[in-house]
Structure formats: structure tokens, C-alpha cells
Amino acid sequence: MCSPAESTQPVHSAAGGNPRSGPRLDGSVAHRPPGQAVCAHGLANWSLRFKAEAEEALRSTGTPTVIFRCDHIYGPPDEPGPTASAFVAKRGSIMLLGGGNQQLAPLYRDDVVEAILHAALETETPIGTFQLAGPDVMSAEQFVRLLNSDSIRIRRTPATLARLLGHVVPTLTPELVDIMLGNAVPTEDVAATARRFGVELHHLADVWRSQ
Length: 211
Hints:
The protein is built from eight helices and eleven strands. By secondary structure, it is α/β, with parallel strands linked by helices. The protein is globular, with a radius of gyration of 17 Å.
């Protein structure tokens, strides 16, 4: 491993979705010497298409590139980040878009950072495109329950109404609504991918209940 001072490539953050398994939410990008490392997503709507175009632009350079396609990224309770914050109840209740059965695999922020660092700084890590997600697949409602106390009230919004709200609520956009209504389940062995980049994936319950 080289030290951070020896790495002269830039680091970038982005958001997107996976073109093969439906839309996803979060992503990050790091460049590796002599190649590049990326965490980004695909094609679900116009904003996600831009991410896919960025991936292709990186590949077209001919520089060895690592791309991580990431699921919903969350932080610890004191810094939950935008994804988890959207699922944290306000005044004892939360509005959940859709029926709550959407499947996702929340990914801990520190695991993303560690994977990017290994990909960017260790020349022996593999080259290619990899899905990176959390170790546990759960429903959106289960995600809400793990982030909150059992006493919260969940208000479910039918998908049709949720898409309408995406056009009138300032904190929502149609693209974000599409993402939050879709499944985001990895189709690859994310544990094996994590091991290849020296990462031991954290379980959401351990991160949030240990704080």
C-alpha cells in the first residue's frame, strides 16, 4: 500500500442506480494510481443515466478502473447521512413511500470508505466493476424499524400518490421517488467482493444498536 501522500488521483462522490437490478441510491468515486476506483450506478432515470455515462467515460480512457455499484449508504446514529435520515421518524412518525416491501441491502458508510481506499491505494486489488452492498437484505419497513424505536407510527403512501408527491414536495423529486419505490438487491456475492478489497461488512443492527 502506498501512503495517501503518494496518491495524486482525485476523489469524487456521486449517486445512482444499478442498470441490471433496479435503481439504487448512493455512490462514491475514488481514483487509483495507476488506475481508477469508482462507486457509482446506472440507468433508472435521467440523473442515473449521467452516472452510467460517467462510468463509461472512465472506462473509455483505457486506464485500469475499479467501479463499485453501491446500495443505500447509511452512517452511524450521530451522522446518519441523507439516506438514513429519510427513514428516521420525526415526532414519532414517518411517511414511507410505497407499501414498505421494497427490498434493499443498506451499506455502512465506513465500509464504502475502506473499500475505496483499498482500491485506490493498493495496486494488487482487482480491476473491474463490482456490486457493493450491505450483508443483510431487508424490506424498507424493516430498515425503518431498525433505525427507530418500535413505538413509531409508519404512514404508508401508495406508489401512485408517492409519484405525484415527487412533483410537488420540495424535498422529493420524481427521480428520488422512483429510486425509493424500487428494489435494490445485489445479484452478486457482495461478501466475496468485500473480502477481495479487505473489507469486513458491518450489520446495520450492530452499528445502530451499539451507539
